[in-house]
Specification:
322 residues, mainly alpha, 2 domains, three-stranded antiparallel β-sheet, two-stranded antiparallel sheet, 11 helices, 5 strands, elongated
Length: 322
């Protein structure tokens, strides 16, 4: 049964592997070159010392702009986990759609063995492909993460264990809908739509509520200079000009801020010109140090839903399909 299961899903597995190989063929040469530049120019010493006008203040922005292509590449690569999940869910759903599962069940293969083999191979293939993607992203983006951190959407959703969670989530919805609906194309398209909605909901609202945020108020000197927290690596939820107690200043609206090396440069939205003030800024954020804690909670929530749906698909197939 394992050999037959592999034969049925080898095309989908090879397509997912080819997509990963194509991504690696682009990311690895660029990553090697970026690591060489990062080491040769001694940029590791610039962390927390990116002062405007200093050597780091010139070199680091140039370095980030030069290799921003990797950020763009892995932003699009976050679509690989759900697409790989849909590909590897297809053999199970197509068997139910076409009725070919009856051929196995009327032979010596039991329902339970067929379900466990089919779903197990799908889960194993998805986890392996997405794990390799996460390792590739973590290695390739390492120098950029040194300056930008890993809390930004392009890094956070491509690194760590969260990509595996969303792959299992999409796989779970695909096989569950396929088991109940027994229509392959509508089930797979609906599962992808659910993934898009879930990701948008998580990125825009839920993620920042999974762990307790930190709220800090700090003094801002002339030209927006401050001794505030380092926000360039954090997940910033809100930031505004305030009084000493952290209350927003009335009549001060439309501020934008760029954190660089621990210094927050506050500017007015529009022309975004420098705002020269002596006052206070308040920020609510999740520190970069909570990256793995946040990933673990999100993984447990999202992957848990996916696992329950996979089990539900197996139960429904075993007990409700004739």
């Amino acid at each position: 049964m394992i050999w037959v299961g592999w034969r049925q899903q080898r095309t989908e597995t090879l397509i997912a592997a080819a997509a990963l190989a194509l991504l690696a063929a682009v990311a690895i040469p660029v990553g090697v070159h970026m690591a060489s530049v990062y080491t040769h120019e001694g940029l590791s010493a610039c962390s927390g010392n990116v002062q405007p006008g200093s050597a780091c203040g010139v070199d680091v922005p140039t370095f980030l702009a030069r290799f921003n292509v990797l950020n763009v590449l892995f932003t699009f690569a976050t679509l690989l986990p759900p697409l790989a999940a849909l590909l590897l869910a297809a053999p199970f759903v197509l068997d139910l759609d076409n009725g070919t599962y009856r051929l196995f069940w009327t032979q010596s293969i039991t329902r339970r063995r067929w379900i466990v083999t089919k779903l197990g191979m799908s889960v194993g293939g998805v986890v392996l492909v997405v794990l390799l993607l996460s390792v590739l992203a973590s290695w390739s983006l390492g120098p950029l993460d040194h300056f930008n951190g890993r809390m930004g959407t392009n890094s956070y959703d491509a690194e760590g264990i969260v990509p595996i969670a969303y792959a299992l989530f999409t796989l779970g919805f695909a096989v569950a809908l396929g088991a109940v609906w027994r229509r392959a194309v509508p089930a797979l398209l609906s599962a992808f739509a659910v993934y898009v909605v879930a990701r948008a909901f998580m990125d825009s609202w839920l993620r920042q509520r999974l762990v307790s945020a930190v709220t800090t108020t700090w003094a801002v000197g002339g030209a927006g200079r401050s001794s505030g927290p380092r926000l360039d690596r954090a997940l910033v939820i809100d930031q505004f000009a305030s009084d000493r107690s952290g209350h927003p200043l009335s009549g001060v609206h439309g501020l934008c801020a760029r954190a660089s090396g621990g210094i927050v440069h506050t500017r007015v939205v529009g022309p975004c010109s420098p705002l020269h003030l002596h006052g206070f800024m308040t920020a609510t954020y999740i520190p970069a140090s909570r990256f793995w804690g946040l990933q673990t909670i999100e993984f447990g929530l999202v992957a848990g839903i996916g696992a329950l749906l996979i089990l539900a698909a197996g139960w429904w197939t075993h007990n409700r399909i004739a």
